[in-house]
Amino acid sequence: MDQNNNPNHADEALKKCPYCAELIKVEAIKCRFCGSSLIAPHAAGNPLREEWYRVREDKIIAGVCAGLAHQFNLSTALLRLAFVVGALLGGGVGLIIYIVLWIILPQRSINQLPPPPQQNPPPQDPTL
To answer: What is the CB-side half-sphere exposure of residue 51 using CA atoms within 13 A?
Structure first.
């Protein structure tokens, strides 16, 4: 269906989805047809694209959980609990991951780390 001829969409600014080529609103952050995210994957503040560290402060064993909790803006206790559950119920997988991270992650002071990403309220989905 051609939405350019539809009078309901005459005053709306539209663009094509780069994934499915359907017309969507310019301010859309997610395509309503294919569900693809229209936000750049390399957006600033993405913790998966930044370097991870162990931290000296707030550590119990090696600072792995404290560093990851700071990086992902999570509760340190929640992350520690996840590693313990992974170690007990996952056949030791949580312990192995912890030891590997202990070896490969450099140690830094929390004062040397960038501030954790700010948690903004989720934007309203204009595609609805």
So the answer is: 11
